[in-house]
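F.,

This is the one I mentioned.
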């Protein structure tokens, strides 16, 4: 959707938004050309196929949002997420509001982590290298937000689940 890219830009980040399709990239370029708040960052676009083998671009934060639509993408995104963390040195955020193949993604991530390929690249201690990624749940009470098909904001309680990997550079 590009919402994450535009939000990061408005918050002051310099953003490289990627997609496999031209249309979302063209829409983002159009949006980025509109007048923006003072202090906003820049936004550029590039084609990137998550299923491909081209290297991930350099970045501080890699966000993959709502793109785990099938088993193949779940497996490949797990590989690419660890690639972003261990080889690019990025913090990685995978947002999956639909949950179609969330379990497949996590299983693939654990399998890929166990292969030691990415652990060897990371600057983590030997003890941390043996630690599997951990799913962590955080309860958020009275969250206020809206969605595409909702008029106005709603308030509700949610559970945020995130994956903990060892911090890079830990002794």
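My design for it:
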């Amino acid at each position: 959707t590009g919402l994450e890219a535009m939000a990061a830009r408005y918050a002051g980040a310099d953003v490289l938004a990627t997609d496999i399709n031209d249309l979302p990239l063209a829409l983002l370029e159009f949006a980025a050309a509109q007048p923006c708040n003072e202090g906003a960052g820049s936004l550029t676009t590039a084609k990137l196929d998550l299923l491909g083998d081209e290297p991930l671009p350099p970045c501080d934060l890699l966000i993959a949002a709502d793109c785990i639509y099938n088993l193949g993408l779940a497996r490949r995104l797990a590989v690419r997420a660890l690639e972003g963390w261990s080889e690019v040195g990025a913090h990685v955020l995978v947002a999956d509001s639909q949950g179609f193949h969330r379990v497949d993604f996590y299983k693939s991530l654990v399998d890929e982590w166990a292969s030691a390929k990415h652990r060897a690249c990371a600057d983590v201690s030997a003890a941390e290298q043996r630690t599997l990624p951990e799913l962590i749940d955080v309860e958020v009470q009275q969250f206020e937000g809206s969605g595409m098909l909702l008029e106005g904001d709603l308030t509700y309680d949610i559970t945020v689940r995130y994956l903990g990997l060892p911090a890079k550079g830990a002794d």
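The chain is about 35% helix and 25% strand.

Talk soon.
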